[in-house]
Amino acid sequence: MELASSSTERGNRIKESSSCGLITIVGVIVLVVVIGIVGRPSVPLGRPVPSRISSMRPMMIGRGRLPLGRRRLSFLAPKFKVTLKTPEGDLEFDCPEDQYILDAAEEEGHDLPYSCRSGSCSTCAGKTISGTVDNSEQESLDDDQVGKGFILTCTSYPKSDVVIETHQEENLF
Length: 173
What we know:
The protein is α+β, with helices and mostly antiparallel strands and 173 residues long. It has three helices and seven strands, in the order H-E-E-H-E-E-H-E-E-E. Strands 2-1-7-3-5 form a five-stranded mixed beta sheet. Strands 4-6 form a two-stranded antiparallel ribbon. The radius of gyration is 28 Å and the shape is elongated.
């Protein structure tokens, strides 16, 4: 009798362990598939994102920014001459129309003030002297300040050759 019950118990244990093994294998396959689908970055076409690792910004829902290299087709984008009038003197460099002015200045080795890099503060404020920029991504300047020519270099793209007076945070208010 003991022999029969022990063989029945062994059979039940084998069935339980094989079903656990099957559940484990199915779980691993599902996990791999889910990670494969969710883990892929999606980049909407035509949206500029930061051009280098040091200028990576956190993903901001609703604004389209992704922490990926922005310079997908920058070599095809028109470039404009940007002149920055700083307290130390004038700086000139070329900037593609799909690159932030602050990022382009840093790539050229120029140090400009900044803090948030997302248009939420006014540390990088400048004033457009001539030319045009796309300053639509900024969040901290009001309509009067924008009307007076103030921009945030961290979220501004050149749309023509432009001259900008930098270090203007104190003059905003």
